[in-house]
Amino acid sequence: MKLAVYDDSRIGLVRNGLIHDVSHLVPAEFDAWPEQRMNWIIRNWAGVSGLVEDAASVDGTAVQDVTLRAINPAAPHVFAIPANYRAHLGEIGKRSITKGGRTAREVGFFLKAPGSLSGAGEPIELPAGSKRRFDHECELAVVIGKAGRNIRREDALEHVFGYSCLIDLTMRIEPGEFEEDRSLRKSFATFTPVGPWLVTADELGSTDELRSRLLVNGNERQGARIGDMIVGIAESIELISSVVPIQPGDIIASGTPKGVGPLVPGDVVEIGIDGIGSMSLDVREAAAAPRPF
Q: How far apart are CA 150 and CA 171, in angstroms?
């Protein structure tokens, strides 16, 4: 199934270009905390999946007539896997903080703030007036459906709820001048667009032969086979859960292939992955903040 979060954090089943509202399945107490609805759906999927499926028999709304939000606006964690395609290693030269050809297998993972999540219906906003370089990174998002700790990779895919497209926006370091922590540089609001919807693992099946792609102003900059990742999905879950328990609703950004490059206000960036879909986002300048970057 394809699930989406839209408008005021409503939950919908997406099918044949229509979105069917299933928000009524979530207990009413979540009306005061609507961004948590998807976490409830994921945690209770075994009991509600049939009811979600039944929603396809009820009239829906055209997807283009709603505003798509992040697939899980209140993900407990957003884990990110760096240096995970061979061709990407060393690509950005001195701006890279993963040195010496090391990969995710050696350096592990990092965290992005869940507050950086945004959706297909929202623009990417770069800090106002900044002269820094802001790069796109095209990634597969993995959404966790089952909690666990110290998960062996041979069991790891049992913990996956579904998949989506994700762009990991990054403010690059300037060696010797601007060298902020990686989590700060990747956690501005809207720096983790994820969407357009979440495709459940049973519908998508194996991801190895799927291809990702990212275009800026219609020109393809990135493209790769998902199965060419150095640390695959199962190993990523093994790695993360060896450090901290994973939770339903967690999102893993699984790493970017070669071709990362800058975005500036006025650009239009599109990401797509086979079997999932695509989303096109405007790049804008954010409102001025008390601290400039």
A: 32
- Cα distances from 283 to residues 115, 134, 152, in angstroms, run 18, 11, 40
User: Cα dist. 31→24, 28, 37, 145, 275 in Å?
Assistant: 10, 5, 8, 22, 32
Tell me how far apart the alpha carbons of residues 143 and 195 are, in angstroms, rounded to a whole number: 11
- 285 conformational bin, left if phi > 0, alpha if psi -120 to 50, beta if neither: beta
Report d(CA 260, CA 135) in Å as an integer: 6
Q: Is 136 part of any domain?
A: yes
CA–CA gap between residue 226 and residue 211 (Å, rounded): 6
Token pair belonging to 209: 């032969």
Q: Which domain holds residue 54?
A: 2-65
Q: Token match 């239009």: residue?
A: 268
Over its C-alpha atoms, the chain yields an Rg (Å, rounded) of 18
What pLDDT digit, counting tens, does each position of 147-188 carry?
999 999 999 999 999 999 999 999 998 888 888 899 999 999
Separation CA 10–CA 236 (nearest Å): 30
DSSP 230-292: SS-HHHHHHHHHTTS-B-TT-EEE----S--EE--TT-EEEEEETTTEEEEEEEEEPPP-SS-
Which of 65, 88, 114 is where one domain is finished?
Answer: 65
- The model's confidence at residue 106, banded by pLDDT at 50, 70 and 90, is confident
CA geometry: angle at 283 spanning 293 and 21, to 5°? 120
Residue 72 placed within a domain: no
**Average pLDDT over every residue of 40-67:** 95
User: Taking all residues of the chain, what is their mean pLDDT, rounded to a whole number?
Assistant: 95
